[in-house]
């Protein structure tokens, strides 16, 4: 509960501060408003009175900064000109120093350094940091890790780099080297092939993957995708399933016959953890893979949908000819494959899966097997429920999904930006003071009230931003540490979503994840213009302020 | 004599002064009478003082209470305000239609 007198106390403090920063020729007016506070009835009315008065004084202070001549301070006597700085100035300087030191002390904490690094990630895309002229990611830390891994003959570390590097030939080379060192890492070919589907080595890798994990449908989907991509290079893009090459047909048939579909997420997590621990990697962007880059091949869901549809059509033809047994086998193969897919990917063939169960139920009913018909009918309903749930999840995602990581990512980016901004203002204040006094001796630096107010606001801003940055990032650092130390990947998807959002430049989002300007140039130009305008405004302010000196009037 | 821009709010303040031109008025009193908040009232008072239409004085009302800033119109201010209100009245008369009363 707020004490009754609190608003009046705040009102007095606010007006006193406003008087402190106000230009000299408005001091009388400031004191007039302050003294009238004693006669304002009601504590909240006093606060409103004070807000209005402080606004007037602040406006004059800003005008004095931009147009110093309009509020030039005149000193009436020589004694006033040489009077000592008041104790308020020393207290303010001490407060500025304390805030700056406290902000810098945050950097001693590794978690804060990590948080600061994360807050800067938004600028990588804007300033094209970490990209070579071809737009390829050239993370120096990753390159150094690859070199170290090669020296140590560490296959796991080479695989770690292979799945992260955006240069496809380098990625293929590292994957080959990793598998050469340890054949148990053959599965890494699948991940690299999914990320870089145009690598020529895929033709060689697919048989090796089939031998390594014979029951897995993934190598066949990779092979089918490679054929799709080769077709894209020709005008014949939308080739119907019947007209697809025998190799594509064979790959998809094998995929639908497979008993499992594993994109190796668990193996990758285990490998990541081992390498992160071994090489003490503390950059979460480097340590965690982007989940959107792995999983099924990009064309996998589309190919599965087309193939499942063609199978159901062919089974329908068989059924119409009276061959219910073969038709039933085909429906079952579609149903089996549909169940192998994760809900995200399975969504694409949910209609075909439902159709397969529906037709199986009808076939069973015709055969007089009512129990089996009821079972397939229940599965049909289940597929519909899962698909509806998935649609709801997608709708929620399109509206921003879980808003907590989005908000935290927003806070982190804002706090990082605020730290840079406040640091810049502090530096300009210090520079302006040194230039004005032409000395770096502390005793010679006699900052004006406005400089002090600006520096104090920036110092407090820097401290608050540091605290917000630390507090907002702390839970994510704990998630990351827990994953590295214990392998607990609970909430890891939240961490991935958060890290993904922190890379979106602030200002390119309209409303927390609902809109993003795709063009890097627009974002770059926006921030470039903002920065230039801020720097110009500050420079003009400082230069004009430097030009004005306290002047003694020539009265005798 | 250079005069400030007379906004409706400024006219409201001047109306209060012109009622008792020789009386010293307090800021809070003016705020209550005109219904203007401090953020609007003080810039008006400052502008009037800058144009020498208003004079200011610090007065001590009672012991232990900080002195209060008081305001009243200067002779120039009184002349300007009376002229302004006289002009407003004649302008109003000029705009009055013939059939609304009075002689045609």
Describe the model.
The complex is a heterodimer of chains A (556) and B (104). Chain A has helices at 6-21, 27-36, 43-66, 78-81, 87-105, 110-126, 140-152, 155-162, 168-181, 188-195, 202-212, 218-232, 246-257, 265-278, 284-287, 300-320, 324-340, 343-346, 350-366, 370-398, 403-437, 449-486, 492-502, 520-547, and strands spanning 74-75, 551-552. With 556 residues, chain A is mainly alpha-helical. Chain A has a two-stranded parallel ribbon. The longest helix of chain A has 38 residues, at 449-486. The two termini of chain A are 57 Å apart. Chain B has a three-stranded antiparallel sheet with strand order 1-3-2. In chain B, strand 2 (54-59) and strand 3 form a beta hairpin. With 104 residues, chain B is α+β, with helices and mostly antiparallel strands. Residues 95-104 of chain B have low confidence and may be disordered. Chain B is globular, with a radius of gyration of 17 Å. The N and C termini of chain B lie far apart (38 Å). The interface between A and B is medium-sized, with 20 and 19 residues.
In a nutshell, what does this entry contain?
The complex is a heterodimer of chains A (556) and B (104). Chain A is mainly alpha-helical.
Q: What are the salient characteristics of this protein?
A:
heterodimer, A: 556 residues, mainly alpha, two-stranded parallel ribbon, 70% helix, B: 104 residues, alpha+beta, three-stranded antiparallel β-sheet, 52% helix, 13% strand, globular
Which structural class fits the helix and strand makeup of chain B?
alpha+beta
Query: What amount of the residues of chain A lies in strands?
Result: under 5%
Order of helices and strands of chain A: HHHEHHHHHHHHHHHHHHHHHHHHHE
In quaternary terms, these chains amount to heterodimer
Topology:
The complex is a heterodimer of chains A (556) and B (104).
Chain A: H1 6-21, H2 27-36, H3 43-66, E1 74-75, H4 78-81, H5 87-105, H6 110-126, H7 140-152, H8 155-162, H9 168-181, H10 188-195, H11 202-212, H12 218-232, H13 246-257, H14 265-278, H15 284-287, H16 300-320, H17 324-340, H18 343-346, H19 350-366, H20 370-398, H21 403-437, H22 449-486, H23 492-502, H24 520-547, E2 551-552
Parallel strand pairs in A: 1-2
Chain B: H1 8-19, E1 25-26, H2 27-34, H3 38-50, E2 54-59, E3 68-73, H4 75-95
Antiparallel strand pairs in B: 1-3, 2-3
